[in-house]
Amino acid sequence: MIQQEVNNLTKSKKQKQRLKERQREAWQAQKAQRKTVRHNTAANQEKHRSDWQPLQPNEFGVVADRRIMPRDELERREQVEMLSAQAVASDFDEAGWQQLAADSPYALGIVIEVSRGLCRVALNDEILVCDWRGALIAEQTGYTNIVAVGDRVLVSQQEEGRGFVQEVLPRRSGLGRADPFYGHLRQLLTANVDQVLIVAAWREPHLWLQMVDEYLIGAERNNLSGIVCINKIDLADDMAEVDTLLRPYQTLNHRVLYTSAVTGEGIGELTAVLRHKTTVLAGLAGVGKSTLLNTIDPDLNLRTARISNMPSREGRHTTTQAVMYPLRPLNGYVIDTPGIKDMGLLGLEADDLLDFYPDIADFAVQCRFSDCRHDSEPGCAVQDGVANGRIASWRFENYVKLYNQLGD
User: Fold this and answer.
1) How many CB atoms lie within 10 A of CB 363?
2) Strand 152-159 with 126-132, pairing
3) For residue range 75-98, what is the model confidence (pLDDT) as tens digits?
4) CATH number reported for the structural domain that contains residue 394 in this entry
């Protein structure tokens, strides 16, 4: 009798243990199911909101990690991206703008400066301070700003010194970047430009080649030619050292100019580059952009400043916003800009950076592993290229820094 009670008790314990195990398994399954539903945003939104656009997997079955949006919002963003691309694809020139102005009751002007809510427009020999029509909506163009320096506009004159922008004419080109707050829109820095002149100083402030790389990337992303101008070359002790350092740019067919406003070296070549062109001057403060322009056209009389006496020897900003100046002797224009430090990288993906470093990309395809990060992996052709001098070490260092910066 006692043995039978012991057996029954043992059997009951085993049944309770199996029951607990089944309950635990069921609870874990329910937990996993809840987690899947909670994190599978696409399935969840498609189930509960018929008006939302579900995310679709790509050819590898991977769903993009981005916020889902209503169908009408997705279509609107795709539309503004298309408009943004079209806004700088028009084949317009001065004759085309003149024809549009001739068919309009308004006068043709050029935006030379933009501030909050207002712009200055050059109209013949007069400068008008202009507002713009409320019907001109920035987002309909794919940009966050309605007008930009360099825009050709149709203006009605309201009173002496004042005007009204009635229409922004089609742009033949533009220098833009992704807007830092609205990722689906772009910020237009300048319009209707031909080239970007990247000005850097050999010293005072010291040459920062990473910034030159960024400006070249920005020019290429906007389908503009980038020209490198190394100023204050009179401070160089050995020109052979300068040539050796800058040779990678020349190998990649980037034009490199050496200039000095002190000795006049390179001023003639720079003048030829600016003739009959609309040029954006990009570079950090203190590299001598305004001084170079004054040397080429003294009538500009742009304000300049000495380098700071601080130990860093950083330049002072004498240009606080983009301004367009006519180079009348050269029949051209220059747009002087403040130091725009993120012109090239904003909106760029880290994995796309290699497209702008062809000297490194040529070696990267030879690496043993297709996902090589060119750090410490065996069989890295890029590291071998740096070691034997076929890749400039500073170019590789710039690539690594920018890649890590984009990946953060």
Assistant:
1) 19
2) unpaired
3) 545 554 555 555 555 567 788 899
4) 1.10.40.50
